[in-house]
Design brief:
With about 900 residues, this protein is mostly beta strands. It folds into 3 domains: about 5-60 and about 75-210, no CATH class; about 225-325, Beta Complex (Ferric Hydroxamate Uptake Protein, Chain A, domain 1), CATH 2.170.130; about 335-900, Maltoporin, Chain A. It contains 9 helices and 51 strands. The protein is globular and about 100 Å long.
Length: about 900
């Protein structure tokens, strides 16, 4: 079929649909017509414009087009309007003869029968004579079989279709083709089906088996996680709360926003709501700091959060596992839990993926609100070697709120960014038991500063929304704001070392973050300052799984990490800044001196399957830490004596899982986590401070966590419920320095508690519904007088509710509507921890995905109802600085096309 014939055929289908709509009531035929239209048009366009990309399985040579079938002659003029197209179609039919005359030269198919079988579906085509062997092809989720020299002659009409004839089969359609043949299209629910074709004397029999993506096996139903215990476990056997965000969910949420912090805030019940920034300010896990890993490599340092994590592109992610609550299993930093990003691995002999996207604010489609996404990658397996490469580029411009006003740029905002992502990995299976793998990623994020927050709002009485002030800043011999992050990760596994399984890892991490210029003239710093934070680390992990006896297994090993941190500030020339919009350095000062943190952890973990229904686990970790810094002079000119300080911490964990049935697990656990606070004390130390002075501010934070919960999995229903309480004698939380935009670290008794729940339900083949809820609170005894007051919202975010409804509207069209509700919180304001009370808000998002040819076209609308609201982080900041009171993005639409072959 050439392109013109394909278009003619597609138009016939359209007009046939229009005739059906005239003859039949609208509602009963709408669904069938939409699927018929989209399926037929996509198959026609795929077979004409992209025939070379189809995976074609030829059963036998296809016969030539029968004599009498019309072909365009010389001098044929292509139509330029629908009317001309229809005239040409009618003329072609007149030349070629009526359908009755054509049928005399073709074999008639007089009946189509569908029979559900144990393995899938059997399609029988009854014919007046033996049929020619068909040619098959795959287009998206559809298996297509073209039968030459045949015509469909059914008593009920010229087309046969049936929706959902068997599990895993969404649609079977049989129709005539313009060349004189019959096309059988079998569309799978989630993957293309396979088929065995048998030509018989009375016709053709097609034995159909649903695609592998649909035919779920017993093993597929078991969700395996590795982060909670550092070993592979069924999630029902883990004695604590675990959230798994699958690749499908990540790809779906990425249609709205590719920021991983945004995705986590939407999907994890105990994590703070999205704050529309490049860092997790006011986004804690259960009220405490979280350890973020990429393939086991920490992405934050002792001093600075994981700023580069937000820029790591979601297209390189296979899944995300979130362990909620304190844990010492991975060392320091997991006082609130662990987020482990597991990157993609090659699965096919050779696959190429490409993606292009465009987005804009839908208020008035302002020209400078357009943003663009590009992606390209490939992966393959050649013998015992596999490889994967992925590139992604994100180019944002300006953002607008729901009232159509420009949102100013500042440190965490995502506007004006050029983000380039590179990720690659390669592995070799040395033997059946040994594997060596290396992976690397590099993220470079740079910002164009065209607008800043107008400082005038600070002089206006009352709470003022931040305003944008045009300021095309140039940077004189200084790096632009942004961040650069590099990860290199080497892994070796051996499945049988004297009966044990060994895993070894060595890694390197480097992070460079440069914030926007900070104008604090007349404030605490009394200058315009600008400069980079520099973090660098290398380390390794070694773990060995040793079976002691059949029901008893030991995990033991060691972790090591050495990191260096430094923060330099340049004092900026105020005249050049005000008059020429130039960021020019006058002098360099130390904001955070260069310092090193060495960490060594030794651990052992036992798991005992007491009975098939009862599992006990427990472990211990001993951590040794060393802090070293040379003599330095603070930003304010104070001389500080350097030195070395040593810390150590011992933490325990114990857990119980009881499974009264195969579908339900009850769990209870006690776990301890610890972290060494960021050394904020170095910035403005008290009089007489020295590194070796033994100040309490440097002591590790140890958290005791108690948790009970239940999980269930019943085919089309999954649910979980958990409650927790966490306490630390020497907590660590931030408190604003009055009259400034700075915070100081407070060490005092701290407690956190809360409840989390999640439900997912699939009431039918086409429907999915779900909700999550997370509520947590926290208090601290900052004055050590026995009175606990509410923590600020930097640490404890309001309760959060998410919900979604998803519908497979047609076999090629999926729609999802989701909401996020963030509640009120005034406890922090009433107890003096927050400058303002936090107000509730609700947002709706729409994600619509349509299979088009070999790829997927996605339409996503963020903030569907164009609600004007302020994210939690913006509200918290407004308590002491209105220049940070940024409104959220208004209604924003994104269009993305992705394809793989």
């Amino acid at each position: 079929m050439n392109q013109r014939q394909g278009l003619i055929f597609a138009l016939k289908v359209v007009f046939s649909c229009m005739k059906r709509l005239k003859k039949q009531p609208f509602q009963p035929v709408l669904k069938h017509t939409l699927v018929w239209l989209t399926g037929a048009c996509s198959m026609v366009l795929t077979s004409t414009a992209k025939a070379e990309s189809l995976e074609t399985l030829t059963v036998s040579a296809t016969a030539a087009v029968p004599a009498g079938a019309s072909q365009p002659g010389e001098g044929f003029e292509p139509a330029v309007s629908v009317a001309e197209w229809m005239s040409q179609i009618q003329a072609q039919e007149q030349v070629g003869g009526s359908s009755t005359e054509l049928a005399q030269t073709l074999t008639e198919i007089t009946n189509v029968q569908l029979t559900e079988t144990e393995g899938g579906l059997e399609i029988t085509l009854e014919a007046t004579a033996p049929l020619s062997a068909p040619e098959t092809a795959i287009a998206g989720n559809a298996l297509i079989a073209d039968i030459p020299n045949a015509v469909l002659a059914l008593p009920e009409g010229e087309m046969f279709e049936q929706f959902g004839p068997a599990e895993g089969i969404a649609l079977v359609s049989v129709m005539n083709t313009p060349e004189g043949g019959v096309r059988v299209s079998i569309t799978g629910t989630d993957a293309p089906p396979t088929a065995n074709l048998s030509v018989e004397a009375s016709g053709l029999v097609i034995a159909v088996t649903p695609g592998a993506g649909v035919a779920e096996t017993e093993d597929d139903a078991i969700q395996v996680v590795v982060t909670a215990t550092r070993t592979e476990e069924d999630i029902l056997d883990v004695p604590r709360s675990v959230t798994v965000i699958t690749r499908e969910e990540i790809e779906e949420q990425s249609r709205l926003n590719r920021n991983l912090f945004e995705i986590l805030g939407t999907t994890v019940p105990g994590f703070g709501p999205p704050n529309q920034s490049d860092r997790n300010n006011a986004q804690t896990l259960r009220g405490r700091d979280v350890l973020i890993l990429i393939d086991g490599v920490p992405q934050s340092s002792n001093f600075f959060g994981a700023a580069g994590f937000a820029s790591f592109d979601s297209s390189s992610v296979e899944r995300i596992e979130v362990v909620s609550g304190p844990t010492g299993l991975y060392g320091s930093g997991a006082a609130g839990g662990v987020i482990n990003v597991i990157t993609r691995r090659p699965e096919e002999p050779f696959t190429v993926q490409a993606e292009v996207g465009i987005s804009a604010d839908l208020g008035e489609l302002e020209g400078d609100s357009f943003a663009y996404d590009l992606g390209f990658g490939f992966s393959g397996i050649e013998g015992n070697i596999d490889y994967l490469f992925n590139f992604a580029g994100r180019f944002t411009n300006q953002f607008y709120d729901a009232e159509g006003d420009r949102i100013p740029q500042n440190n965490p905002t995502l506007s004006g960014a050029t983000v380039l992502n590179f990720f690659g990995r390669s592995g070799i299976d040395i033997t059946d038991e040994q594997r060596l793998q290396i992976s690397a990623s590099h993220v470079r994020d740079r910002r164009e500063v065209d607008f800043i927050t107008d400082p005038i709002v600070q002089d206006i009485p009352g709470r003022q929304r931040a305003r944008a002030l045009a300021a095309d800043l140039s940077f004189d011999e200084l790096e632009r704001p942004g961040n650069t992050t590099t990860n290199i990760n080497l892994n070796y596994t051996h499945d049988d070392v004297f009966g044990s399984r060994l895993q070894a890892q060595a890694y390197y991490w480097d992070n460079d973050v440069t914030d926007f210029p900070f104008d604090d003239r007349g404030g605490f710093i009394d200058a315009i300052v600008y400069g980079p934070f520099l973090g660098e680390a290398f380390g390794g992990r070694l773990q060995i799984e040793t079976p002691i006896a059949q029901p008893l297994e030991l995990l033991w090993g060691a972790d090591y990490r050495n990191e260096r941190n430094e923060n330099i500030f340049f004092v900026i020339d105020p005249v050049a800044f005000d008059e020429d919009e130039v960021v020019r350095s006058l002098e360099e000062r130390t904001w955070l001196p260069p310092y090193f943190v060495d960490q060594l952890g030794l651990f052992g973990q036992l798991q005992w399957d007491v009975t098939p229904d009862l599992t006990l686990s427990g472990g211990i970790r001993q951590e040794f830490l060393e802090l070293q810094a040379d003599d330095f002079t603070t930003f304010f000119g104070d001389d500080i004596e350097g030195g070395t300080v040593n810390f150590d911490a011992t933490v325990f964990n114990a857990g119980l899982v009881y499974r009264p049935t195969d579908n339900i697990s009850l769990f209870a656990s006690f776990s301890q986590g610890f972290s060494v606070p960021g050394f904020f004390t170095f910035i403005n130390p008290p009089p007489g401070f020295s590194i070796e002075g033994g100040f309490e501010e440097l002591d590790p934070q140890k958290v005791d966590n108690y948790e009970v919960g239940v999980r269930g999995r019943w085919g089309n229903l999954q649910a979980s419920l958990a409650g927790y309480y966490a306490y630390s004698e020497l907590g660590a939380f931030l408190q604003n320095i009055p009259g400034t935009a700075l915070s100081t670290l407070i060490r005092a008794p701290q407690r956190n508690y809360g409840v989390e729940a999640a439900i997912d339900w699939q009431p039918g083949d086409q429907w999915q519904l779900g909700t999550t809820i997370g509520w947590n609170e926290g208090e601290a005894d900052a004055d050590d007088d026995g009175e606990f007051l509410a923590l600020g919202t930097f640490d404890v975010q309001p309760w959060k509710l998410t919900a979604y409804v998803q519908h497979q509207t047609t076999p090629t069209w999926n729609n999802r509507l989701q909401l996020l509700y963030s509640g009120n919180r005034d406890r922090g304001f009433e107890d003096g921890s927050d400058g303002v009370a936090i107000e509730e808000y609700i947002t709706f998002d729409l994600i619509s995905q349509f299979q088009l040819g070999d790829g997927t076209l996605s339409l996503a609308v963020e903030n569907l109802l164009d609600n004007q609201y302020f994210p939690v982080f913006s509200q918290v900041v407004s308590g002491f600085n209105d220049t940070g009171y940024l409104a959220a993005r208004g209604r924003r639409v994104s269009l993305t096309y992705s394809i793989s072959w």
